[in-house]
Protein 1
Amino acid sequence: MGVHRCWGCGSQNEHGLQIKSYWEGDEGVCVWRPQPYHHAWPGIVNGGILAAIIDCHCICTAIAAAYRAAHREITEPPLIAMVTAELRISYLRPTPIAELLHLRAMMCEQTERKAILTCTLSALGEVCVRAEAVIVRPRASPGAGM
Amino acid sequence: MGVHRCWGCGSQNEHGLQIKSYWEGDEGVCVWRPQPYHHAWPGIVNGGILAAIIDCHCICTAIAAAYRAAHREITEPPLIAMVTAELRISYLRPTPIAELLHLRAMMCEQTERKAILTCTLSALGEVCVRAEAVIVRPRASPGAGM
């Protein structure tokens, strides 16, 4: 999944977070290890960067679901581009910086132009952050020219 | 405002975003220039990093408001620490990457333990993102040992 140069998921953005999203059944999953400098307080991950990886993982999952619904491979042109319209995040407990973070996104609603997903972010088996994202397909592709 | 090593606002985090928040009357303001690699699509800022700077700016504003309500200087110990409980973001239009971004946060509700803020992020005079944040003061300071 993903766009090559996106700061969140782009494999060719050397300054980016380079998250990788995969299907596990009907869930989009992602495992990501924060860097030591991604902290807010000692030992605790900055909430903003958690919002960033949740946002990007939800977009990647929604795009993959759109390709899946169209019975197309993700590498097959034309590109399906989607963007976030709404992101609602609940920070339930501090997220430890020294652990692998596990994201799981589930599609709740899917039409050709819109997807609503829920996403959890867990560490050490505990859900630290819960989110809902509304992802939409713009009429003009923002990826034109990439 | 801010904590020295926080990835969002820490002046001593060389890998961080180093946002700076100030009072302008009763509004917390912040001006930030994205780097070229902070894109989602060509010319458009990644929504996740926008969530990150909004989150950190709202926390900084809430902490500054708490010091102000206590008639204390921000540098005066003991530290007042606050964390995000809820963040709701509406992406209204694409945010251009080549422009200065202007954030304005307003306190809507303030008690000793909780603050609710609205925040806008604008470029070229147009609001691109609108957000609401619920910021809380944990009973045990996450900054212990900083």
Protein 2
Amino acid sequence: MSAPRWLSPAEQRAWRTQLALHKLLMHRLDRELQEFSLTVNDYEILVNLSESPERRMRMSDLADATIQSRSRLSHQISRMEAKGLVMREDCHDDRRGTFAVLTDEGWETIQRVAPFHVAGVREHFVDRLTDDQLETIEAAYAPIVEQLKKLR
Amino acid sequence: MSAPRWLSPAEQRAWRTQLALHKLLMHRLDRELQEFSLTVNDYEILVNLSESPERRMRMSDLADATIQSRSRLSHQISRMEAKGLVMREDCHDDRRGTFAVLTDEGWETIQRVAPFHVAGVREHFVDRLTDDQLETIEAAYAPIVEQLKKLR
């Protein structure tokens, strides 16, 4: 390996700020969702299912959409099943595995919680950034996201 | 609660891109660190300890520095102790709890792994951004980070 190209101070600041932002933000949004006995991860599952036809997704598609392993998702879905928010359903007409389906309670939960969660996302992130900053962040990160998806 | 201010399409894109970037990046960097039997979380602990006087930190300070709860950190440190990378040490001269201390093996590990990890951070993040983008990200996120730290 050739000599390491260590990060410059400016590069290091940007990298560490990105890491800290994500952790602190998730910590804060988790805290705010605790009031509804949800985590940010629960919320993300509810959003994905609520936006899908018939409020259901294949487990494999849901794992892709939420960027996590099948096994981690499976544990997550079990916890959410225990809370009555989702159900598992086998596909009878094909062999491509199991669906996660939003229950009526899950649907009511996301309707009820969404206004509070979006207020938190605004307060702690979106409303603290200018339109230009939001645009730069998306333009900078979107190609990296596409590239990293190919590497999965 | 007044009518929810839902995110505009541009706001939603920026927010979702930020979330996806972080998850995919951590997934990728974890994969690359697997070769050394480390995770991104292990790496972060090693860096913090290696940069501290006498390569040691109070557990409470280490929890703050790595933005996680004392209990989560404690589990993490137990796993790293089992691998021989760190040790716990009681403070004899005060009551302010336990230190985490980098072992010689932990020190050698961070020296050996750092060049590979920084290469990954460059390949998947830093080198894919312009200086202007890096500067905008830091300028945009640093005040949010400061604000969120106060809310912890």
Protein 3
Amino acid sequence: MKCRVCREPAVIDIRRHNANFCVEHFLRLCRDQVVKAIDRHEMLRPTDRVLVAISGGKDSLALWDILVALGYEADGLYLGLGIGDYSASSEGFARRFAEERGLSLEVVDLQEEYGFNVPEGARAARRVPCSACGLSKRHLFDEAARRGEYDAVATGHNLDDEAAVLFGNVLRWQQDYLGRQRPVLPAGCGFPRKVKPLVRLGEREMAAYCVLRGIEYMVEECPMAVGNKHLGYKEALNAIEEQSPGSKHDFYFGYLDRVVDRFGESAGRDGSDIGTCARCGAPAGNEVCAFCRLLERVGGADPGHRSEPAGTGNRTSVSIGPTRVGTTGGVTGARQ
Amino acid sequence: MKCRVCREPAVIDIRRHNANFCVEHFLRLCRDQVVKAIDRHEMLRPTDRVLVAISGGKDSLALWDILVALGYEADGLYLGLGIGDYSASSEGFARRFAEERGLSLEVVDLQEEYGFNVPEGARAARRVPCSACGLSKRHLFDEAARRGEYDAVATGHNLDDEAAVLFGNVLRWQQDYLGRQRPVLPAGCGFPRKVKPLVRLGEREMAAYCVLRGIEYMVEECPMAVGNKHLGYKEALNAIEEQSPGSKHDFYFGYLDRVVDRFGESAGRDGSDIGTCARCGAPAGNEVCAFCRLLERVGGADPGHRSEPAGTGNRTSVSIGPTRVGTTGGVTGARQ
């Protein structure tokens, strides 16, 4: 097994590329694929300040690593979701990654900041955990990007993730989701731009990238996600990919190249139905945003609206290395 | 486990209906689902003469049984594809079914009529067997419908089949196929109407229908199809269905209800590119139809164009019961 580029011994084969790579050229391939994704989909300008959504898993840490290597000004934001040991371990991986590299990581703890965790939130809202979690993450990343004045939020969704989401949306023909499933969602109506620079790289490649770069990451899947539909879609697509390498790539990029426009005229938000949340000031389709409705059901509170003085709040906004993210005061201000 | 209708002991559960049924009400359900499919998609008028494509498997025999039970004038056509023991056994099941019920079955043997079989045809055409087979079947069923002046050709494609085909088309986003994937293809340009009355019934239900009706059928899958992509798609969807009963139904009917029109304005053939095959007279997109091109590559011959006198041909057109299908002379005439 020889590297396609240099003919030296290879360490990994990528069946959908029908090629093998040595360490050096595999790492270069990963960076090149990120560059290609960013260019083709006009995700980022070279001077953009990027907020990277960090989970402590392989994808988000590899993404952060690559964006920094490519010269982007990229800070991390980790959300403590309160999912027992899983969250504690994940946070450790995120903190160590940032510390060792002198990168700026903000940590926001849902329990300490808002008085609830994902398992409680899901129960109170009678949602599946992944739904309450996704809602909270979107809200808090958007908010952090606004107050930190970042140009974009980057998430570590890889090809396997996106193909599985597309498969789920196709299985139910959820046309509104289908129209919006693009690797870039432009800024608009108070929402920051969202980009997914890893869409050209698979799950296995991201794990290999971390191993070869010496990045330690949280290997375990989130215990709340076990048995969820998304993982079922991944397994189904893995079986197809095994039979026909390249199927996931063709499915996802065929959709972007030829079909997505049939489901939505443009990637933009038209804004006609977006106002401002009466409680937190975030952009919202209703009078009160979905996150504040979740807060209400779970009996939690927005720290900006708690009865006790702001100084007694439990916010543990932590920055390691050069701090670019706003402080607690800034957050409260932004919300009011 | 009690029957949803009569509360007597049930013999089958159908998870996507979240219900169990006794023999009587399960058989009624199957017929009702066929009636519903025929009505909703305007497949057949009560007086239509229907040619049923018979393979000897559970779906085609159950379809024939149900159409006759519903009062349709339905004859069968079996094609001997020359796939060794598989074809010999399948033909036996088809013949016995027709014989025992006094139904009219025509048998056309590819080897005897056209001088090749599916394995040879696939090799010569460098196509996968299922492709050469499908091409031959479409051509010969269309032709038989024309010469027999049938109003429609009915095939036994069930919900599992259609969902798997849709999945395959979606995985590659084959937009031309997607636009045409409907349970009815209207007649036009010399092609007969094609209908799929079993689209509301799953594979397992069709097997149960045959067992409960005492219909003996060819259980084995076609040996040429083993390991093909279509079966892989079925397995992937089965895993999804296991997790979420009703997924296949929602996938297929959601597509028909809300999405198919995005891929094709209408189900009709516009005919702008359809002429007549210079060799056999069938409608064709090119000067020579795909079947005659296959014949040429395989070194076979259309019986209407063989050098030996027509009377010496090997055609074994067999009718059991009242004969409505044209004879060899009729066939040759129709082709010239």
Protein 4
Amino acid sequence: MVLLGEPNPSFQSAAFTMLAPAGCRHDPAGKAGLASLTCEMTLRGAGDRDGRALINDLDALGVDRGESVGVSQVSLRASGMAEALAPALEIYADILRRPLLPADQIEAGRMVCLQELRGIEDEPSHKLMQELRRQHYPSPWGLPSQGEIDTVKRLTPHDVEAFHGRHYQPGGAILAIAGGFEWERIVDLVQRLFADWEAPDEGAQAPPPEIAPVTHIPYESNQCHIGLAYDSVPYDHDDYFQAWASVGVLSGGMSSRLFTEVREKRGLCYTVSASLQSQKERSAVFCYAGTTCERAQETLDVTHAELLKLRDGIKQNELDCLKARIKSSLILQQESSSSRSGSLAHDWYRLGRVRPVDELSAIIDAITAESINKFLEGQPPENFTLVTLGPEPLESPVGIS
Amino acid sequence: MVLLGEPNPSFQSAAFTMLAPAGCRHDPAGKAGLASLTCEMTLRGAGDRDGRALINDLDALGVDRGESVGVSQVSLRASGMAEALAPALEIYADILRRPLLPADQIEAGRMVCLQELRGIEDEPSHKLMQELRRQHYPSPWGLPSQGEIDTVKRLTPHDVEAFHGRHYQPGGAILAIAGGFEWERIVDLVQRLFADWEAPDEGAQAPPPEIAPVTHIPYESNQCHIGLAYDSVPYDHDDYFQAWASVGVLSGGMSSRLFTEVREKRGLCYTVSASLQSQKERSAVFCYAGTTCERAQETLDVTHAELLKLRDGIKQNELDCLKARIKSSLILQQESSSSRSGSLAHDWYRLGRVRPVDELSAIIDAITAESINKFLEGQPPENFTLVTLGPEPLESPVGIS
């Protein structure tokens, strides 16, 4: 396990982010959703606390918490008063290492997972983007962590125990802490809590790729939801920030191209956006637009044209805006112990080190319109995946099929 | 206009929140949605900048912005690097006082408003809570700011100009600034930008109350969404924090009653929550639960029973958890210039003064299980408004009809 810390004496708060290599790509065949159910079950009692005592003790610390299950990792986050850090870490050591996984609560846990799955059916934009990810990335990299109703129904307490035993383990685990704390004391505490955590053997993976470039999901509505994706470079790639800046020109501020062309000039939709999402080994740009059925074809065509137009390069004034936005957001991030702990953990996971803020600033400063355009020449937006959700399919723009 | 400031030299960021008395309750009869369209149009050019220049200049400052139209107020927020504060304020003075409201962009602005309205049709939980607010508060206090498709279609450039002239005005406007800035310099700047802002005459209001205790919205889905509301006391009431604490016991942490009874023990749904929402003159608790149709009746019954059970009072350990949570969140809020500027503005609007954090801490410290229970005895949850959205209506619990 890796421990990262960024103590800052001016903070009265402290936060930590814990990543464990227990994401949904480790779900065994026919057991999709197991990573999510296991995460849900770990909070139902751990160490010498039953579920009630565990939740009460965490709440009594006033800790704001959150869990999420990604493709590769499960992420546990907590933030609160600096004094709450040590006792919260003690409880989280139990959650990770000694959860009770009570068999008599498996049905309640399963119901929560099924309710979440069914809830997505009622959120068309969520459903669409989930399908776009599934269609764009080869399996298991695009799988939704919630699994499927049929597979979740069949999961057993034994499955949960086996998954926990195999994947909640120190190899690949990262604990990152930021805010008001003393480094030496935290090192001692983490030593005591985690030094004897041992790794089990790991199993092998065999992902079968199967991808469709165009998918339509029939859905009764007067709205149509459009998703477009294309490959980009992952976070540890030398050109990552060139790719990231090119997407910043597409989407982000109100002067960004998609906002200007799709929303402001044509009023085609209320929401349009693009974001570069990087897993460790792969990365893609995902675009979303939601609009009425009558305007859906035009929205798709205009959005697609804007993506293609990136190949003609970006302008200096677009880059200036983007850099101002990035500088602002770096400063705001520095002023939050919670976002700092998340950055530390994700840097380590994706780079194998923490990138200091000064280095990041220097990288941003060095980006030029020329450097972005050179990148876009070598790796233009192409090989799109298109998913639409609405009453009727749309006509695919030339080049997507 | 009121200017509030909380300079903090340890911040590199700064943020402001501007409230202007131009919310949707000022929409004239037959013109619902005018406040929203006007807000959308103010950003399409102001002072000597056309729409493009205005957006570019704001983006070039790297400012993160947001606008929202409430019942009484329109709220404009911006945050970024401390150096961006003064130039951003200059632009916002133009937006508020000298927007171009270009007639040739009214159709694009209208389309954006219509797209937002139609988008809500596809988000059942949003649609439900909007209807619950409309049914619970007498008109115009529960009106959705987006208006209605028919009325938005009829709005003219003249309507927008008239609304701006009448409601974007200094009487009732509040500008609150927090983060890294010097108070004297900001006072000088704000003087220069706003000292000669004059108030027009204000019109009268005649809200006709019409409320139904139970409403069902037919919606084809295998999900059912449930909303329940009951009256509470507004922010400036002596008992506000007693009411707020009682809702904190219902919803918030994982040990809260609704989470425990509805989600954890019975697995009835993925999301269940209650929140105390206070306008200036009135306030209510709004509860939401989304679940599958088969479990909807049980979810409603259990949720309603938990609300009624508040009358039996709360326990000391529930209060302890709640207090820890509140303390944490106060500290986290102190560390964000953006949330501070929002708190300053809303305190002034609702209290006529800013409540110092120390005073707030003292109020929280003084809350006891007895003080909450005394409040609940005098003002128990009752006179519920129920709205459901799904394929079939549910049976109303005893006492709601």
